[in-house]
Amino acid sequence: MRSLSTSSKVLCAVVALCSIVGIASLFGGSAIWILGGANALNKDGVAALTTRPTETIDVGLGWRHYGGDAGGHRYSSASEINPSNVESLEPIWAFRTGDMTRRAAAMARSATEGTPILVGDSLIFCTPFNEVISLDPEIGTIRWRFDPEIEVNTDPANQFVCRGVAHWRDSRESASCSDRIFVGTNDARLIALDMKDGQTCKEFGTAGEIRIDPGMPLLWSGEFQITSPPVVVGDTVVVGSSIGDNARVAAPNGAVRAFDARTGESKWKWDPIPRSSDNPASSTWVGSQPPQEGHANVWAPMSVDEKRGLIFLPTSSPSPDFFGGLRPGDNRHANSVVALDGETGELRWSFQTVHHDIWDYDLPAQPGLYSVWRDGALHDVVAQVTKTGLVFVLDRDTGAPVLPVEERPVPQNAETGEWLSPTQPFPIKPLPIVPSELTPDEAFGITLIDRQHCRRQIHGAVAEGLFTPPSTQGTIFYPFTGGGANWGGAAYDPSRNLLVVNMSNVAHHIQLIPTDEFDEVHRRNPTKEVSPQDGAPFGMKRTMLFSPLGLPCSPPPWGVLAAIDLSDGTLVWRKTIGAQFGVTIGLPNLGGPIVIASGLIFIAATMDNMIRAINIENGEVLWEWKLPAGGQTTPMTYELDGRQYVLIYAGGHSRAGTPLGDTLLAFALSR
Asked: Is the pTM of this model over 0.85?
């Protein structure tokens, strides 16, 4: 499934039109957004922690994995940069990949979402076109680069994207290519490189690469991609896939594939959709047997518990997104956090966050493997942020909720032929980070005409809150199918029990189109996302719920950052994120936060192209810097010889409409 709807390209209008119409004058000061609920926040948006652990968990000074460590903490114990000196942070080197000149045309179909890793004294990252580059981490000079030469004259379903690479060290140190970098490509290859010089490891697969078989002919060459980094557990390398949405029912399946890290020999393959009647999950797929549907793939980053030898998967929705009448039942293990044995692929447990998904509310982010202080002891958990704005906290060994979850009734008024789950799982705590109900009276607009247009759109659609089924009349999806949270995920401070997550707060208008009307609707909407969902009785049209001026019809803030105490689910603070003319109005965002031990959050993500340092104690912005291009990615940090660096890959996002670029930028304290 794609990580961001095609129609989200118009998000750029939020920033551009704000400057035209002077929206900043509508808001004053640093806005604090407080939803209703049991958590009482003071005037600074802060609730006191009831307990604080006295012991700090050290996950290191480096950044050896996409998420900082294998479990996705996005945390570093480096602390030279702190709240008292962060104002002195400044750029100290920049490296340009050359994509803006070498691949200028293809950049218009790209999204820079990559986060580098640091292994030894090598800083390694991938460009949106899967070129892998190694730099000196102190001064940013190039050591080597490898270009897999993917075809760029294609139309990738999910843009050209490469979020990161993975490292594996052979325990047989005398072996050739003993330090390897693995990268998945937009044309569905898994490639092994020698970390010393960037040459392919010839003994892996065929001349250093494996071409992933999607299992069926593709409708177009860009339908099946790999966009998130592989992960390594023991001597096994595991890779997911990213598959184009809404083209057809009988789509490529979302199997997760594992290979021997030395030879590339296939070790196991796990399909989230049960293809045989002896699979215990088959009873939750009541349609044709075996199911014809595809997807339920893992396009977002995965996590690894190295001690337990487990891999944790965030699975997506089955095909197609918005009609499931041909697949009655809950459709487990789609839309689930899944724990597999890394050596064998055996299922250990699975927890479903959405039953029978017909909303494209797939799990978009890396499951966080954290140790939470509770009742004076550490508890190993999995924390999963979602597009719906909900956060699930599960026991790492069993998948049982650590913070309670209940099944609640949800809207049941679906189109003929659809099947609905009568209930959906909702955490009792934490409370939702973003709202899920939108009424005509809440319609936003900076002029009366603008507001009336939004009121009519909401009034004319079906809008019964979260999990309202898609309809031929048109349905409001709030949050939109890009979240809530997305692939940027969350960061966790183990010394404070705090989960930090950023989310967007805008809406989609989704309309089902009867098959016999599809061609005409498609003809009348040449610039909009209109997809056939071949094999289903309905196609679909997906548009952002925006005013004529291009601003969201949902009320601001359109972007928030929140901190949650994972010991009990308390919302400690929640602030708007993203500003225009220096006024914090809250902007849609893509990318994630990181946390450092001194008490700082670093995050870019917002559509104003800023990177910010934020006080983790209260959410206050302490420093910000304008990037040379959009920062729709996640930063990273490391310490060398007592000096701490903060890096971000500023390359922009074509669908989000932020300025494109090709710069990796490093910050450090001025000396």
From this structure: yes
